[in-house]
Specification:
With 186 residues, the chain is an alpha+beta fold. It contains six helices and eight strands, in the order E-E-H-H-H-E-E-H-E-H-E-E-H-E. The longest helix is centred in the middle third of the chain and has 22 residues.
Length: 186
């Protein structure tokens, strides 16, 4: 048997691995980990002991409860939508959640396009849709775009795919166009 040396912090004595003292130390360390968990989760441990479950089984049950509560909260905030298809339960992200996610991805994207390339957004909303114009201007400005003209904005970040998906989901593809181009050669 290979001998490994353990050193205790009190008296700095060497203990060979496999000895009775090393075995006792291993048991104490394992029990100490269980005891630390029990002290941190006293009410959970009480329920686990009364129901006859092991701590691992009890933790799995508690994790499942937390997941169910999180799903309920997301449904309440209208982030998740629930449908039944036959006997299957289908849970999917809501359209508002997808739009919010895309907007966040676009505004956080820092991946640069190739040298001298620009992602241009041109929009021309019909008369009477001033709120849509204001939304696009505010959104593009907050996402780091540079205003080139009143309804022409550009960035050097690679956001064209996410922008195209956002335009498609919002149903404004008739009024918003996205191009990737480069500066003219001099």
């Amino acid at each position: 048997m290979a001998k490994k040396k353990l050193v205790t912090s009190r008296n700095k004595k060497e203990i060979t691995h496999g000895s009775a003292i090393a075995g006792v130390l291993d048991v104490l360390l394992t029990d100490f980990e269980t005891l630390t968990w029990v002290l941190g989760h006293q009410s959970e441990y009480k329920h686990a002991v009364l129901s006859g479950l092991s701590p691992t089984e009890w933790q799995a049950i508690q994790e499942e409860k937390r997941n169910r509560r999180a799903i309920q909260m997301l449904k309440k905030r209208k982030v998740l939508e629930e449908h039944t298809r036959g006997e299957q339960l289908v849970v999917q992200l809501s359209c508002d959640a997808i739009v919010a996610s895309l907007k966040k991805r676009i505004s956080l994207n820092q991946k640069a396009l190739t040298k001298d390339a620009w992602c241009l957004v041109l929009f021309d909303f019909p008369v009477g849709s001033g709120t849509a114009r204001q939304f696009w201007r505010r959104f593009l400005k907050m996402s780091g775009f540079t205003q080139i003209q009143l309804s022409v904005w550009g960035t050097r970040c690679d956001v064209a795919k996410d922008l195209q998906l956002l335009v498609k989901i919002l149903g404004v593809s008739d009024w918003v166009k996205i191009y990737i181009g480069s500066e003219p050669m001099k």
